[in-house]
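Sequence, please.
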């Protein structure tokens, strides 16, 4: 249940006419009163002898207790309360009780007998509007400071008592929701979503991996946005606004949104902190297993580096300082945006949804210490500048590898947020992980299928040897892994590891000794990608030379078909 305190106004009658009218899309069905300050207010919706002016006169009567110069310029308090889409339809009596609780909790009518006059109008099954005059019966002004937070807290109690959908409590760091006017305008113009949401996603993508103002604004322009910069008399850039070329007001002028309006972390000063963090860490030591070197020229290499940076971040997040972890989580959002922007069509939808949902997880009250996240931000940059990836071959396989690592990074972010009691952020990260799980299943089906076939062609003695290595490296999970369809892909990977000169037992023990194996949907899949990344093996099995299979199978080329219950790529 979401309460929303609207901007205070000065026209009681204007708001009442809207509430009792048909609405901009004739969506107001049977508008009527469900509660009022005295339980006896006239109802223009049900009593044909009563008008909105009659109700306005009653609500605004306390204004007459004050001299004209003491009356507040904006005396109209307006709060809407909306149920969740999956909540049951509440009765008028239930909505009336909710209204009384909201005005009491917010200080509008605290129950002392001299509160403000108010009325609650219902014009749809799922919500009500409460209108009040901000002058008490005794002529004093009400104490409605922080009424939004007080209304939110009361709604959390109401949800529990009525068995409604329980909204995770927030901390004031969420991006602003589109207004009803913005939503109606989007519907009227045939847009999939309001302009502010589209702009927020576009600006977020422009930030991903950018290292300077010039690059950031070039990306905004390349995305087709109109840009208006705010410049001080000294010539210093203070801020920016953006607009969609086809989103215009009644005067046919573009509707601009400031970066800080789109989201708190998209203001220019907040974006600059990311860049300054990058500069401050230029001389910092780089972890030994983190990819370094010039920017990759192909999507597959960029995805490999992304997987390496994501996994290194997971390991650091286990015991990192809060500011450092917050920076990693924010940078993870940049990586998801960049991956969604550059991935093939068959995974793009789920990756875009994962990035959009995870955006809420990137902000909290904990201040991010940028600089430590340089490797992840560089990974986002590499993804953008290496260009779009194909959905097959090494591009497709390394996409699955990167998603696999990012799944654990997002899961680690969910655990951290939950530990810090960041309810909305933890829920967002968990939802993003589910989108990544789906994207992984799509991306991994072909490369894991090829590895599965290679593993099925291995000689029986070699398969027994791989199983023994597995039992020695991960005795507590070995039987689970050997029961998974992915065991054949893992056996093929271990054979590839050995053929390139690595010690399979040592590498397997190192890969299995790291975190999160117990929570994986397919442990064998996780180990496959870790081993192939650590041994620098091609992610695409078809890229391995033919002599590898010949050596592993003793020269035989048997190709058994998988049984129906052993088809790869179905479990994550």
């Amino acid at each position: 249940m979401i309460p929303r305190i609207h901007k205070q106004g000065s026209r009681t009658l204007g708001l009442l006419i809207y509430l009792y009218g048909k609405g901009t899309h004739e969506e107001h069905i049977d508008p009527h009163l469900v509660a009022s300050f005295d339980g006896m207010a006239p109802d223009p919706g049900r009593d044909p002898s009563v008008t909105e002016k009659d109700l306005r006169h009653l609500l605004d009567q306390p204004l007459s207790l004050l001299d004209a110069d003491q009356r507040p310029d904006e005396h109209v308090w307006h709060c809407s309360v909306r149920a969740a889409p999956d909540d049951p339809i509440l009765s008028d009596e239930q909505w009336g009780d909710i209204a009384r609780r909201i005005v009491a909790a917010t200080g509008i009518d605290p129950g002392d007998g001299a509160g403000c006059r108010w009325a609650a109008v219902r014009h749809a099954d799922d919500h009500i509007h409460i209108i009040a005059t901000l002058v008490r019966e005794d002529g004093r002004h009400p104490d409605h400071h922080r009424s939004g937070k007080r209304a939110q807290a009361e709604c959390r109690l109401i949800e529990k008592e009525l068995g409604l959908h329980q909204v995770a409590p927030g901390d004031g760091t969420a991006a602003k929701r589109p207004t009803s006017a913005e939503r109606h305008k989007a519907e009227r113009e045939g847009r999939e979503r309001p302009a502010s949401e589209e702009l927020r996603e576009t600006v977020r993508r422009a930030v991903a991996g950018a290292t300077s103002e010039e690059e950031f604004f070039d990306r905004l322009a390349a995305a087709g946005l109109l840009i208006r910069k705010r410049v001080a008399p000294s010539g210093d850039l203070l801020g920016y606004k953006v607009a969609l070329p086809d989103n215009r007001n009644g005067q046919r002028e573009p509707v601009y949104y400031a970066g800080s309006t789109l989201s708190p972390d998209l203001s220019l000063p907040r974006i600059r902190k990311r860049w300054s963090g990058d500069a401050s860490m230029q001389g910092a030591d780089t972890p030994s297993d983190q990819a370094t070197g010039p920017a990759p020229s192909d999507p597959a290499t960029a995805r490999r580096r992304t997987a390496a940076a994501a996994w290194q971040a997971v390991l650091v997040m286990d015991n990192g300082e809060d500011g450092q972890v917050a920076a990693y989580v924010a940078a993870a959002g940049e990586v998801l945006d960049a991956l969604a922007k550059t991935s093939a069509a068959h995974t793009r939808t789920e990756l875009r949804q994962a990035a959009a949902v995870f955006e809420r997880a990137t902000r909290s009250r904990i201040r991010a210490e940028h600089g430590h996240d340089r490797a992840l931000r560089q990974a986002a940059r590499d993804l953008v500048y290496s260009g779009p990836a194909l959905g097959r071959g090494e591009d497709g396989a390394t996409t699955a590898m990167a998603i696999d690592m990012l799944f654990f990074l997002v899961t680690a972010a969910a655990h951290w947020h939950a530990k810090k009691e960041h309810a909305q952020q933890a829920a967002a990260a968990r939802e993003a992980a589910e989108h990544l799980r789906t994207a992984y299943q799509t991306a991994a089906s072909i490369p894991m299928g090829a590895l599965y076939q290679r593993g099925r062609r291995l000689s029986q003695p070699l398969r027994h040897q791989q199983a023994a290595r597995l039992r020695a490296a991960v005795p507590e999970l070995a039987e689970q892994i050997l029961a998974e369809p992915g065991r054949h892909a893992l056996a093929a990977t271990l054979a590839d590891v050995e053929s390139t000169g690595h010690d399979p037992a040592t590498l397997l023990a190192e890969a299995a000794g790291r975190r999160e194996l117990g929570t994986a949907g397919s442990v064998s899949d996780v180990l496959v990608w870790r081993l192939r990344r650590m041994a620098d093996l091609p992610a695409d099995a078809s890229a391995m030379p033919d002599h590898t299979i010949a050596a592993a199978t003793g020269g035989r080329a048997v190709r058994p078909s998988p049984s129906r219950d052993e088809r790869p790529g179905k479990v994550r």
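Residues 2-162 form a domain with the BirA Bifunctional Protein; domain 2 fold (CATH 3.30.930).
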